[in-house]
Protein backbone atom coordinates (compact mmCIF):
# COMPACT_ATOMS: atom_id res chain seq x y z
CA UNK A 1 0.00 0.00 0.00
CA UNK A 2 0.91 3.65 -0.29
CA UNK A 3 2.97 4.01 2.90
CA UNK A 4 5.49 1.27 2.27
CA UNK A 5 7.26 3.57 -0.17
CA UNK A 6 9.03 5.39 2.64
CA UNK A 7 10.54 2.20 4.01
CA UNK A 8 11.50 1.08 0.51
CA UNK A 9 13.30 4.36 -0.09
CA UNK A 10 15.21 4.03 3.18
CA UNK A 11 16.21 0.43 2.45
CA UNK A 12 17.51 1.36 -0.99
CA UNK A 13 19.67 4.05 0.58
CA UNK A 14 21.40 1.68 2.98
CA UNK A 15 24.87 0.23 2.44
CA UNK A 16 26.08 2.75 -0.17
CA UNK A 17 29.52 4.24 0.27
CA UNK A 18 30.56 7.90 0.09
CA UNK A 19 32.07 7.23 -3.33
CA UNK A 20 28.79 5.69 -4.56
CA UNK A 21 26.93 8.81 -3.50
CA UNK A 22 29.51 11.25 -4.85
CA UNK A 23 29.49 9.55 -8.25
CA UNK A 24 25.70 9.51 -8.21
CA UNK A 25 25.01 13.07 -7.03
CA UNK A 26 28.06 14.79 -8.48
CA UNK A 27 27.80 13.18 -11.93
CA UNK A 28 26.63 16.48 -13.46
CA UNK A 29 29.54 18.37 -11.89
CA UNK A 30 32.16 15.72 -12.74
CA UNK A 31 34.22 17.98 -15.02
CA UNK A 32 34.40 20.81 -12.46
CA UNK A 33 35.35 18.44 -9.65
CA UNK A 34 38.01 16.85 -11.84
CA UNK A 35 39.45 20.29 -12.54
CA UNK A 36 39.52 21.09 -8.82
CA UNK A 37 41.20 17.71 -8.09
CA UNK A 38 43.86 18.46 -10.73
CA UNK A 39 44.43 21.96 -9.26
CA UNK A 40 44.63 20.49 -5.74
CA UNK A 41 47.14 17.84 -6.89
CA UNK A 42 49.30 20.53 -8.51
CA UNK A 43 49.02 22.52 -5.27
CA UNK A 44 50.12 19.56 -3.15
CA UNK A 45 52.99 18.73 -5.50
CA UNK A 46 54.10 22.38 -5.30
CA UNK A 47 53.90 22.22 -1.51
CA UNK A 48 56.15 19.12 -1.30
CA UNK A 49 58.76 20.41 -3.73
CA UNK A 50 60.31 22.63 -0.95
CA UNK A 51 60.99 19.42 1.05
CA UNK A 52 63.03 18.01 -1.87
CA UNK A 53 64.83 21.33 -2.32
CA UNK A 54 65.58 21.48 1.39
CA UNK A 55 66.84 17.89 1.30
CA UNK A 56 69.08 18.76 -1.64
CA UNK A 57 70.40 21.83 0.17
CA UNK A 58 71.30 19.79 3.25
CA UNK A 59 72.92 17.16 1.05
CA UNK A 60 74.96 19.86 -0.74
CA UNK A 61 76.01 21.39 2.58
CA UNK A 62 77.14 18.02 3.86
CA UNK A 63 79.02 17.38 0.63
CA UNK A 64 80.96 20.64 1.20
CA UNK A 65 79.16 23.04 -1.11
CA UNK A 66 79.87 26.56 0.16
CA UNK A 67 78.63 28.71 -2.71
CA UNK A 68 75.82 30.54 -0.95
CA UNK A 69 74.41 31.87 -4.25
CA UNK A 70 73.32 28.31 -4.96
CA UNK A 71 71.53 28.17 -1.61
CA UNK A 72 69.95 31.58 -2.19
CA UNK A 73 68.62 30.38 -5.51
CA UNK A 74 67.28 27.22 -3.94
CA UNK A 75 65.73 29.21 -1.09
CA UNK A 76 64.03 31.44 -3.68
CA UNK A 77 62.80 28.32 -5.49
CA UNK A 78 61.31 27.02 -2.24
CA UNK A 79 59.49 30.33 -1.67
CA UNK A 80 58.11 30.27 -5.21
CA UNK A 81 56.78 26.72 -4.78
CA UNK A 82 55.26 27.53 -1.38
CA UNK A 83 53.39 30.46 -2.98
CA UNK A 84 52.37 28.29 -5.97
CA UNK A 85 51.12 25.61 -3.54
CA UNK A 86 48.91 28.15 -1.76
CA UNK A 87 47.73 29.59 -5.09
CA UNK A 88 46.69 26.24 -6.59
CA UNK A 89 45.10 25.19 -3.30
CA UNK A 90 43.04 28.40 -3.27
CA UNK A 91 42.02 27.98 -6.93
CA UNK A 92 41.03 24.37 -6.28
CA UNK A 93 39.04 25.25 -3.14
CA UNK A 94 37.27 28.14 -4.88
CA UNK A 95 36.25 25.94 -7.77
CA UNK A 96 35.11 23.07 -5.58
CA UNK A 97 33.07 25.40 -3.32
CA UNK A 98 31.42 27.00 -6.35
CA UNK A 99 30.68 23.57 -7.83
CA UNK A 100 29.37 22.26 -4.52
CA UNK A 101 27.02 25.22 -4.00
CA UNK A 102 25.60 24.64 -7.49
CA UNK A 103 25.33 20.92 -6.75
CA UNK A 104 23.50 21.55 -3.47
CA UNK A 105 21.09 23.96 -5.17
CA UNK A 106 20.46 21.16 -7.70
CA UNK A 107 19.84 18.59 -4.95
CA UNK A 108 17.38 20.94 -3.23
CA UNK A 109 15.50 21.57 -6.47
CA UNK A 110 15.41 17.83 -7.11
CA UNK A 111 14.02 17.24 -3.59
CA UNK A 112 11.36 19.91 -4.14
CA UNK A 113 10.32 18.44 -7.48
CA UNK A 114 10.32 14.96 -5.96
CA UNK A 115 7.91 16.01 -3.19
CA UNK A 116 5.49 17.24 -5.85
CA UNK A 117 5.59 13.82 -7.57
CA UNK A 118 5.08 11.79 -4.39
CA UNK A 119 1.69 10.61 -3.22
CA UNK A 120 0.26 13.16 -0.79
CA UNK A 121 0.31 10.69 2.08
CA UNK A 122 4.03 9.98 1.78
CA UNK A 123 4.70 13.69 2.27
CA UNK A 124 2.15 14.06 5.05
CA UNK A 125 3.46 11.03 6.96
CA UNK A 126 6.91 12.59 7.20
CA UNK A 127 7.03 15.35 9.84
CA UNK A 128 7.52 18.69 8.08
CA UNK A 129 10.45 19.43 10.44
CA UNK A 130 12.26 16.30 9.18
CA UNK A 131 11.75 17.18 5.50
CA UNK A 132 12.79 20.79 6.05
CA UNK A 133 15.84 19.55 7.95
CA UNK A 134 16.90 17.30 5.05
CA UNK A 135 16.30 20.03 2.47
CA UNK A 136 18.02 22.85 4.35
CA UNK A 137 20.32 22.07 7.30
CA UNK A 138 21.42 18.55 6.41
CA UNK A 139 22.05 19.43 2.78
CA UNK A 140 23.98 22.48 3.94
CA UNK A 141 26.13 20.32 6.20
CA UNK A 142 27.60 18.37 3.28
CA UNK A 143 28.88 21.53 1.60
CA UNK A 144 32.15 21.85 3.50
CA UNK A 145 32.86 18.14 3.37
CA UNK A 146 32.16 17.82 -0.33
CA UNK A 147 34.02 21.01 -1.26
CA UNK A 148 37.12 19.98 0.69
CA UNK A 149 37.11 16.21 0.60
CA UNK A 150 36.80 15.67 -3.15
CA UNK A 151 39.91 17.65 -4.18
CA UNK A 152 41.93 17.57 -0.97
CA UNK A 153 41.43 13.95 0.01
CA UNK A 154 42.67 12.85 -3.42
CA UNK A 155 45.55 15.32 -3.41
CA UNK A 156 46.60 14.50 0.15
CA UNK A 157 46.79 10.81 -0.71
CA UNK A 158 48.73 11.50 -3.90
CA UNK A 159 51.44 13.56 -2.19
CA UNK A 160 52.51 10.89 0.34
CA UNK A 161 52.40 8.28 -2.43
CA UNK A 162 54.82 10.31 -4.56
CA UNK A 163 57.09 10.91 -1.57
CA UNK A 164 56.98 7.24 -0.60
CA UNK A 165 58.01 6.20 -4.14
CA UNK A 166 60.89 8.69 -4.02
CA UNK A 167 61.98 7.40 -0.60
CA UNK A 168 61.84 3.82 -1.98
CA UNK A 169 64.26 4.91 -4.70
CA UNK A 170 66.73 6.15 -2.07
CA UNK A 171 66.30 3.29 0.42
CA UNK A 172 63.24 1.01 0.61
CA UNK A 173 63.92 0.12 4.29
CA UNK A 174 63.80 3.77 5.28
CA UNK A 175 60.70 4.28 3.12
CA UNK A 176 58.91 1.55 5.06
CA UNK A 177 60.16 2.95 8.38
CA UNK A 178 58.73 6.36 7.51
CA UNK A 179 55.30 4.68 7.54
CA UNK A 180 55.94 2.88 10.85
CA UNK A 181 53.30 4.86 12.74
CA UNK A 182 50.65 4.19 10.12
CA UNK A 183 49.47 0.73 11.38
CA UNK A 184 49.00 2.06 14.93
CA UNK A 185 47.22 5.14 13.62
CA UNK A 186 44.91 2.95 11.52
CA UNK A 187 44.24 0.72 14.53
CA UNK A 188 43.16 3.77 16.56
CA UNK A 189 40.93 4.96 13.73
CA UNK A 190 39.44 1.49 13.39
CA UNK A 191 38.69 1.53 17.13
CA UNK A 192 36.98 4.87 16.62
CA UNK A 193 34.92 3.67 13.65
CA UNK A 194 34.21 0.25 15.14
CA UNK A 195 30.99 1.48 16.79
CA UNK A 196 30.64 4.74 14.87
CA UNK A 197 27.29 4.13 13.19
CA UNK A 198 25.18 3.63 16.36
CA UNK A 199 26.12 6.80 18.29
CA UNK A 200 26.20 8.82 15.07
CA UNK A 201 22.68 7.62 14.16
CA UNK A 202 21.57 8.54 17.67
CA UNK A 203 22.75 12.12 17.17
CA UNK A 204 20.82 12.20 13.87
CA UNK A 205 17.68 10.82 15.52
CA UNK A 206 17.80 13.24 18.43
CA UNK A 207 18.40 16.15 16.04
CA UNK A 208 15.34 15.09 14.04
CA UNK A 209 13.24 14.85 17.23
CA UNK A 210 14.48 18.29 18.31
CA UNK A 211 13.55 19.75 14.92
CA UNK A 212 10.11 18.13 14.92
CA UNK A 213 9.42 19.25 18.48
CA UNK A 214 10.43 22.82 17.61
CA UNK A 215 8.22 22.84 14.49
CA UNK A 216 5.32 21.33 16.47
CA UNK A 217 5.80 23.83 19.31
CA UNK A 218 5.68 26.79 16.92
CA UNK A 219 2.88 25.32 14.77
CA UNK A 220 0.73 24.46 17.78
CA UNK A 221 1.38 27.68 19.72
CA UNK A 222 -2.32 28.64 19.51
CA UNK A 223 -3.48 25.38 21.14
CA UNK A 224 -0.60 25.50 23.64
CA UNK A 225 -1.64 28.98 24.78
CA UNK A 226 -5.38 28.29 24.74
CA UNK A 227 -5.02 25.14 26.85
CA UNK A 228 -2.29 26.50 29.11
CA UNK A 229 0.15 23.86 27.92
CA UNK A 230 3.12 26.19 27.54
CA UNK A 231 5.03 24.60 30.41
CA UNK A 232 4.50 20.97 29.44
CA UNK A 233 5.17 21.70 25.75
CA UNK A 234 8.27 23.68 26.63
CA UNK A 235 9.38 20.81 28.88
CA UNK A 236 9.06 18.45 25.92
CA UNK A 237 11.20 20.78 23.84
CA UNK A 238 13.76 21.16 26.68
CA UNK A 239 13.93 17.35 27.06
CA UNK A 240 14.51 16.97 23.34
CA UNK A 241 17.28 19.60 23.48
CA UNK A 242 18.94 17.89 26.47
CA UNK A 243 18.76 14.48 24.83
CA UNK A 244 20.25 15.97 21.67
CA UNK A 245 23.14 17.52 23.60
CA UNK A 246 23.69 14.25 25.51
CA UNK A 247 23.83 12.22 22.30
CA UNK A 248 26.58 14.49 20.98
CA UNK A 249 28.65 14.46 24.18
CA UNK A 250 28.34 10.64 24.46
CA UNK A 251 29.48 10.31 20.88
CA UNK A 252 32.39 12.71 21.39
CA UNK A 253 33.39 10.97 24.64
CA UNK A 254 33.50 7.61 22.88
CA UNK A 255 35.62 8.83 19.99
CA UNK A 256 37.89 11.43 21.60
CA UNK A 257 40.47 8.94 23.00
CA UNK A 258 41.11 6.87 19.85
CA UNK A 259 40.97 10.01 17.68
CA UNK A 260 43.47 11.94 19.86
CA UNK A 261 45.74 8.88 20.02
CA UNK A 262 45.69 8.52 16.24
CA UNK A 263 46.54 12.21 15.78
CA UNK A 264 49.40 11.94 18.30
CA UNK A 265 50.89 8.73 16.99
CA UNK A 266 50.69 9.54 13.27
CA UNK A 267 53.29 12.36 13.15
CA UNK A 268 55.80 10.48 15.38
CA UNK A 269 57.57 8.90 12.36
CA UNK A 270 60.95 10.15 13.56
CA UNK A 271 60.76 7.69 16.47
CA UNK A 272 61.43 4.88 14.00
CA UNK A 273 63.29 6.72 11.22
CA UNK A 274 65.79 8.51 13.47
CA UNK A 275 67.34 5.61 15.50
CA UNK A 276 67.11 2.87 12.87
CA UNK A 277 68.43 5.20 10.15
CA UNK A 278 71.37 5.98 12.42
CA UNK A 279 72.05 2.24 12.79
CA UNK A 280 72.05 1.84 8.96
CA UNK A 281 74.46 4.79 8.67
CA UNK A 282 76.81 3.24 11.27
CA UNK A 283 76.59 -0.11 9.43
CA UNK A 284 77.54 1.75 6.26
CA UNK A 285 74.42 0.68 4.37
CA UNK A 286 73.00 4.22 4.19
CA UNK A 287 74.83 7.38 3.14
CA UNK A 288 74.67 10.15 5.75
CA UNK A 289 73.34 12.77 3.32
CA UNK A 290 70.59 10.33 2.25
CA UNK A 291 69.79 9.78 5.91
CA UNK A 292 69.31 13.53 6.46
CA UNK A 293 67.26 13.79 3.25
CA UNK A 294 64.99 10.96 4.40
CA UNK A 295 64.53 12.57 7.84
CA UNK A 296 63.27 15.74 6.18
CA UNK A 297 61.07 13.99 3.62
CA UNK A 298 59.50 11.62 6.16
CA UNK A 299 58.19 14.67 8.06
CA UNK A 300 56.56 15.94 4.85
CA UNK A 301 55.10 12.54 4.06
CA UNK A 302 52.96 12.10 7.12
CA UNK A 303 51.37 15.61 7.29
CA UNK A 304 49.15 15.26 4.18
CA UNK A 305 48.33 11.72 5.23
CA UNK A 306 47.04 13.00 8.58
CA UNK A 307 44.99 15.64 6.75
CA UNK A 308 43.50 12.91 4.54
CA UNK A 309 42.74 10.70 7.56
CA UNK A 310 41.13 13.57 9.46
CA UNK A 311 38.47 13.70 6.72
CA UNK A 312 37.25 10.22 7.63
CA UNK A 313 34.88 11.65 10.24
CA UNK A 314 33.40 14.16 7.78
CA UNK A 315 33.08 11.45 5.15
CA UNK A 316 31.08 9.34 7.64
CA UNK A 317 28.72 12.24 8.32
CA UNK A 318 28.33 13.16 4.65
CA UNK A 319 27.62 9.52 3.73
CA UNK A 320 24.83 9.43 6.27
CA UNK A 321 23.35 12.71 4.95
CA UNK A 322 23.57 11.50 1.35
CA UNK A 323 21.73 8.37 2.53
CA UNK A 324 18.89 10.51 3.90
CA UNK A 325 18.67 12.57 0.70
CA UNK A 326 18.79 9.41 -1.39
CA UNK A 327 16.03 7.84 0.72
CA UNK A 328 13.71 10.75 -0.16
CA UNK A 329 14.73 10.82 -3.81
CA UNK A 330 14.12 7.09 -4.26
CA UNK A 331 10.66 7.07 -2.66
CA UNK A 332 8.12 5.53 -5.05
CA UNK A 333 6.22 8.18 -6.97
CA UNK A 334 2.66 8.28 -8.22
CA UNK A 335 2.71 6.05 -11.29
CA UNK A 336 2.25 8.64 -14.00
CA UNK A 337 3.91 8.65 -17.42
CA UNK A 338 5.96 11.64 -18.57
CA UNK A 339 3.68 11.88 -21.66
CA UNK A 340 -0.02 11.02 -21.61
CA UNK A 341 -0.78 7.77 -23.40
CA UNK A 342 -4.31 8.79 -24.48
CA UNK A 343 -6.52 11.86 -24.70
CA UNK A 344 -9.62 11.89 -22.45
CA UNK A 345 -12.93 12.17 -24.26
CA UNK A 346 -14.84 14.66 -22.09
CA UNK A 347 -14.70 15.11 -18.35
CA UNK A 348 -16.80 12.25 -17.05
CA UNK A 349 -15.11 10.53 -14.10
CA UNK A 350 -15.70 6.85 -13.39
CA UNK A 351 -14.53 4.91 -10.34
CA UNK A 352 -14.60 1.13 -10.84
CA UNK A 353 -14.04 -1.25 -7.93
CA UNK A 354 -11.82 1.29 -6.15
CA UNK A 355 -10.20 0.02 -2.96
CA UNK A 356 -7.80 2.16 -0.98
CA UNK A 357 -6.17 2.13 2.43
CA UNK A 358 -3.89 4.23 4.56
CA UNK A 359 -1.24 1.79 5.75
CA UNK A 360 -2.86 -1.55 6.50
CA UNK A 361 -6.27 -0.05 7.15
CA UNK A 362 -8.51 -0.25 4.08
CA UNK A 363 -10.95 2.67 4.12
CA UNK A 364 -12.61 2.34 0.69
CA UNK A 365 -13.98 -1.05 -0.27
CA UNK A 366 -14.79 -1.47 -3.98
CA UNK A 367 -16.34 1.91 -4.89
CA UNK A 368 -18.22 2.05 -8.21
CA UNK A 369 -19.27 5.57 -9.05
CA UNK A 370 -20.02 7.62 -12.16
CA UNK A 371 -19.52 11.37 -11.91
CA UNK A 372 -21.22 12.60 -15.08
CA UNK A 373 -19.71 15.39 -17.14
CA UNK A 374 -21.23 18.84 -16.69
CA UNK A 375 -23.27 17.79 -13.65
CA UNK A 376 -23.02 18.32 -9.92
CA UNK A 377 -22.28 15.25 -7.82
CA UNK A 378 -22.31 15.62 -4.04
CA UNK A 379 -20.77 13.20 -1.56
CA UNK A 380 -22.41 13.05 1.85
CA UNK A 381 -22.07 10.67 4.77
CA UNK A 382 -20.99 10.36 8.38
CA UNK A 383 -17.62 11.69 9.48
CA UNK A 384 -14.81 9.29 8.62
CA UNK A 385 -16.88 7.44 6.01
CA UNK A 386 -14.34 8.14 3.23
CA UNK A 387 -15.69 11.16 1.33
CA UNK A 388 -12.44 13.17 1.38
CA UNK A 389 -10.49 10.07 0.46
CA UNK A 390 -12.63 9.64 -2.68
CA UNK A 391 -12.11 13.33 -3.52
CA UNK A 392 -8.32 13.01 -3.08
CA UNK A 393 -8.20 9.91 -5.28
CA UNK A 394 -10.17 11.73 -7.99
CA UNK A 395 -7.84 14.73 -7.59
CA UNK A 396 -5.01 12.24 -8.19
CA UNK A 397 -3.23 13.03 -4.93
CA UNK A 398 -3.00 9.30 -4.19
CA UNK A 399 -3.01 6.22 -6.38
CA UNK A 400 -5.84 3.73 -5.94
CA UNK A 401 -4.95 0.42 -4.30
CA UNK A 402 -7.25 -1.75 -6.45
CA UNK A 403 -9.62 -0.84 -9.25
CA UNK A 404 -9.33 2.23 -11.43
CA UNK A 405 -10.43 5.81 -11.93
CA UNK A 406 -10.92 7.11 -15.44
CA UNK A 407 -11.38 10.60 -16.84
CA UNK A 408 -13.16 10.69 -20.20
CA UNK A 409 -12.50 6.93 -20.51
CA UNK A 410 -8.73 7.17 -19.81
CA UNK A 411 -7.21 5.69 -16.65
CA UNK A 412 -5.61 8.46 -14.55
CA UNK A 413 -2.40 6.39 -14.51
CA UNK A 414 -2.21 6.79 -18.28
CA UNK A 415 -2.19 10.58 -18.05
CA UNK A 416 0.85 12.67 -17.27
CA UNK A 417 0.61 14.71 -14.04
CA UNK A 418 0.83 17.96 -16.05
CA UNK A 419 -2.05 16.98 -18.39
CA UNK A 420 -4.26 15.82 -15.55
CA UNK A 421 -3.50 18.92 -13.48
CA UNK A 422 -4.80 21.04 -16.34
CA UNK A 423 -8.09 19.13 -16.18
CA UNK A 424 -8.76 19.42 -12.48
CA UNK A 425 -9.09 22.14 -9.83
CA UNK A 426 -9.20 20.95 -6.23
CA UNK A 427 -10.10 22.99 -3.18
CA UNK A 428 -9.36 21.15 0.06
CA UNK A 429 -10.68 21.67 3.58
CA UNK A 430 -7.44 23.41 4.60
CA UNK A 431 -7.57 26.15 1.92
CA UNK A 432 -3.83 26.68 2.05
CA UNK A 433 -2.66 30.11 0.95
CA UNK A 434 0.92 31.16 0.26
CA UNK A 435 2.51 34.03 2.12
CA UNK A 436 2.09 36.53 -0.68
CA UNK A 437 -0.58 38.97 -1.82
CA UNK A 438 -4.23 38.05 -2.33
CA UNK A 439 -3.73 38.86 -6.01
CA UNK A 440 -0.83 36.42 -6.42
CA UNK A 441 -2.67 33.70 -4.50
CA UNK A 442 -5.60 33.93 -6.92
CA UNK A 443 -3.29 34.23 -9.94
CA UNK A 444 -1.69 30.91 -8.99
CA UNK A 445 -4.78 29.30 -10.53
CA UNK A 446 -3.60 30.57 -13.92
CA UNK A 447 -0.09 32.03 -13.93
CA UNK A 448 0.05 34.77 -16.53
CA UNK A 449 -3.49 36.00 -15.91
CA UNK A 450 -3.74 39.81 -15.98
CA UNK A 451 -4.68 41.89 -12.92
CA UNK A 452 -8.03 42.65 -14.56
CA UNK A 453 -8.72 38.90 -15.00
CA UNK A 454 -7.81 38.22 -11.36
CA UNK A 455 -10.18 40.95 -10.21
CA UNK A 456 -12.96 39.73 -12.52
CA UNK A 457 -12.73 36.21 -11.08
CA UNK A 458 -12.73 37.63 -7.54
CA UNK A 459 -15.88 39.58 -8.42
CA UNK A 460 -17.56 36.54 -9.99
CA UNK A 461 -16.70 34.37 -6.97
CA UNK A 462 -18.20 36.93 -4.60
CA UNK A 463 -15.03 37.89 -2.76
CA UNK A 464 -14.27 41.23 -4.40
CA UNK A 465 -16.00 43.30 -1.70
CA UNK A 466 -14.27 41.74 1.27
CA UNK A 467 -10.88 41.85 -0.51
CA UNK A 468 -11.35 45.58 -1.12
CA UNK A 469 -12.04 46.04 2.58
CA UNK A 470 -8.65 44.52 3.48
CA UNK A 471 -5.92 47.02 4.36
CA UNK A 472 -4.22 46.95 0.96
CA UNK A 473 -6.99 45.37 -1.10
CA UNK A 474 -5.65 42.86 -3.60
CA UNK A 475 -2.10 43.72 -2.51
CA UNK A 476 -2.66 42.58 1.08
CA UNK A 477 -0.12 39.95 2.08
CA UNK A 478 -2.06 37.05 3.61
CA UNK A 479 0.63 35.83 6.08
CA UNK A 480 2.04 32.31 6.42
CA UNK A 481 -0.69 29.82 5.37
CA UNK A 482 -3.09 32.81 5.13
CA UNK A 483 -2.87 33.46 8.89
CA UNK A 484 -3.94 37.14 8.52
CA UNK A 485 -7.34 36.08 7.14
CA UNK A 486 -10.35 34.37 8.67
CA UNK A 487 -11.08 30.72 7.80
CA UNK A 488 -14.04 31.79 5.64
CA UNK A 489 -11.96 34.41 3.80
CA UNK A 490 -9.22 31.86 3.12
CA UNK A 491 -11.77 29.45 1.69
CA UNK A 492 -13.29 32.10 -0.55
CA UNK A 493 -9.89 33.07 -1.96
CA UNK A 494 -9.11 29.37 -2.53
CA UNK A 495 -12.34 29.00 -4.46
CA UNK A 496 -11.49 32.08 -6.55
CA UNK A 497 -8.06 30.55 -7.24
CA UNK A 498 -9.72 27.32 -8.40
CA UNK A 499 -12.14 29.30 -10.55
CA UNK A 500 -9.23 31.17 -12.09
CA UNK A 501 -7.89 27.84 -13.30
CA UNK A 502 -11.06 27.25 -15.30
CA UNK A 503 -10.54 23.47 -15.34
CA UNK A 504 -13.36 21.24 -16.63
CA UNK A 505 -13.39 19.17 -13.41
CA UNK A 506 -13.85 21.01 -10.11
CA UNK A 507 -13.58 19.30 -6.71
CA UNK A 508 -14.68 21.18 -3.59
CA UNK A 509 -13.96 19.32 -0.35
CA UNK A 510 -15.92 21.14 2.32
CA UNK A 511 -14.66 24.30 0.77
CA UNK A 512 -17.29 26.45 2.48
CA UNK A 513 -17.24 24.88 5.94
CA UNK A 514 -15.95 28.08 7.61
CA UNK A 515 -18.40 30.39 5.91
CA UNK A 516 -21.42 31.68 7.83
CA UNK A 517 -24.80 30.66 6.33
CA UNK A 518 -25.24 34.03 4.62
CA UNK A 519 -21.83 33.94 3.00
CA UNK A 520 -22.18 30.27 2.21
CA UNK A 521 -25.32 30.96 0.19
CA UNK A 522 -23.40 33.69 -1.64
CA UNK A 523 -20.48 31.38 -2.38
CA UNK A 524 -22.81 28.57 -3.48
CA UNK A 525 -24.49 30.93 -5.86
CA UNK A 526 -21.24 32.08 -7.42
CA UNK A 527 -19.87 28.52 -7.56
CA UNK A 528 -23.05 27.37 -9.31
CA UNK A 529 -22.69 30.21 -11.81
CA UNK A 530 -18.99 29.74 -12.45
CA UNK A 531 -19.11 25.95 -12.48
CA UNK A 532 -21.98 25.88 -14.96
CA UNK A 533 -21.17 23.27 -17.60
CA UNK A 534 -18.26 21.85 -15.56
CA UNK A 535 -18.11 18.51 -13.81
CA UNK A 536 -18.45 19.35 -10.16
CA UNK A 537 -17.74 17.03 -7.23
CA UNK A 538 -18.72 18.57 -3.90
CA UNK A 539 -18.38 17.37 -0.33
CA UNK A 540 -20.52 19.25 2.14
CA UNK A 541 -21.56 18.68 5.70
CA UNK A 542 -24.44 21.15 5.49
CA UNK A 543 -26.91 19.17 3.41
CA UNK A 544 -28.95 22.29 2.57
CA UNK A 545 -26.11 23.39 0.29
CA UNK A 546 -26.34 20.35 -1.96
CA UNK A 547 -30.08 19.67 -2.20
CA UNK A 548 -30.10 20.78 -5.84
CA UNK A 549 -27.19 18.55 -6.87
CA UNK A 550 -27.88 16.36 -9.92
CA UNK A 551 -26.68 13.34 -7.97
CA UNK A 552 -26.16 12.87 -4.24
CA UNK A 553 -24.02 9.90 -3.19
CA UNK A 554 -24.27 8.62 0.38
CA UNK A 555 -20.98 7.15 1.59
CA UNK A 556 -20.95 4.91 4.63
CA UNK A 557 -17.95 3.04 6.05
CA UNK A 558 -16.04 3.19 2.79
CA UNK A 559 -18.92 1.96 0.64
CA UNK A 560 -21.69 3.61 -1.33
CA UNK A 561 -24.88 3.21 0.66
CA UNK A 562 -27.24 5.05 -1.71
CA UNK A 563 -27.38 7.50 -4.58
CA UNK A 564 -30.04 9.65 -6.21
CA UNK A 565 -31.51 13.11 -6.05
CA UNK A 566 -32.45 14.77 -2.77
CA UNK A 567 -36.10 13.79 -3.17
CA UNK A 568 -35.25 10.19 -4.14
CA UNK A 569 -32.89 9.74 -1.22
CA UNK A 570 -35.37 11.17 1.26
CA UNK A 571 -37.76 8.45 0.07
CA UNK A 572 -35.32 5.56 -0.27
CA UNK A 573 -32.33 6.03 2.05
CA UNK A 574 -32.95 5.82 5.80
CA UNK A 575 -29.38 7.06 6.45
CA UNK A 576 -29.86 10.13 4.25
CA UNK A 577 -33.27 10.81 5.82
CA UNK A 578 -31.68 10.65 9.30
CA UNK A 579 -28.87 12.99 8.24
CA UNK A 580 -31.35 15.40 6.70
CA UNK A 581 -33.53 15.41 9.83
CA UNK A 582 -30.47 16.03 12.02
CA UNK A 583 -29.39 18.86 9.72
CA UNK A 584 -32.86 20.42 9.62
CA UNK A 585 -33.26 20.39 13.40
CA UNK A 586 -29.78 21.91 13.87
CA UNK A 587 -30.77 24.65 11.43
CA UNK A 588 -34.06 25.27 13.21
CA UNK A 589 -32.15 25.57 16.48
CA UNK A 590 -29.80 28.12 15.02
CA UNK A 591 -32.65 30.11 13.47
CA UNK A 592 -34.44 30.16 16.81
CA UNK A 593 -31.39 31.86 18.28
CA UNK A 594 -29.65 28.74 19.52
CA UNK A 595 -26.16 27.78 18.46
CA UNK A 596 -25.20 29.37 15.21
CA UNK A 597 -23.82 27.10 12.53
N1 LIG B 1 -3.65 10.35 6.13
C1 LIG B 1 -4.36 9.41 6.75
N2 LIG B 1 -3.74 8.41 7.38
C2 LIG B 1 -4.43 7.43 7.99
N3 LIG B 1 -5.77 7.37 8.03
C3 LIG B 1 -6.46 8.34 7.43
C4 LIG B 1 -5.80 9.42 6.76
N4 LIG B 1 -6.73 10.24 6.25
C5 LIG B 1 -7.94 9.71 6.58
N5 LIG B 1 -7.77 8.57 7.29
C6 LIG B 1 -8.83 7.68 7.79
O1 LIG B 1 -9.59 7.25 6.67
C7 LIG B 1 -10.97 7.23 6.99
C8 LIG B 1 -11.73 8.09 5.98
O2 LIG B 1 -11.32 9.44 6.14
P1 LIG B 1 -11.91 10.62 5.26
O3 LIG B 1 -11.18 11.85 5.62
O4 LIG B 1 -11.93 10.21 3.85
O5 LIG B 1 -13.40 10.68 5.81
P2 LIG B 1 -14.51 11.80 5.58
O6 LIG B 1 -15.77 11.07 5.28
O7 LIG B 1 -14.07 12.79 4.58
O8 LIG B 1 -14.54 12.45 7.02
P3 LIG B 1 -14.93 13.95 7.43
O9 LIG B 1 -16.33 14.16 6.98
O10 LIG B 1 -14.83 13.96 8.91
O11 LIG B 1 -13.96 14.86 6.77
C9 LIG B 1 -11.10 7.71 8.43
O12 LIG B 1 -11.21 6.56 9.24
C10 LIG B 1 -9.79 8.42 8.70
O13 LIG B 1 -9.43 8.26 10.05
TrEMBL record:
Transmembrane segments: 37-58, 70-91, 145-167, 174-193, 256-279, 291-311
Subcellular location, principal: membrane
Domain ABC transmembrane type-1: 36-317
InterPro entries for this protein: AAA+_ATPase (IPR003593), ABC1_TM_dom (IPR011527), ABC1_TM_sf (IPR036640), ABC_transporter-like_ATP-bd (IPR003439), ABC_transporter-like_CS (IPR017871), P-loop_NTPase (IPR027417), Type_1_exporter (IPR039421)
Pfam family, one: ABC_membrane
GO-annotated molecular function: ABC-type oligopeptide transporter activity; ATP binding; ATP hydrolysis activity
Membrane topology: Multi-pass membrane protein
Domain ABC transporter: 349-582
Keywords: ATP-binding, Cell membrane, Membrane, Nucleotide-binding, Transmembrane, Transmembrane helix, Transport
Cell location: Cell membrane
A GO CC annotation given for this chain: plasma membrane
The protein, known as: ABC transporter ATP-binding protein
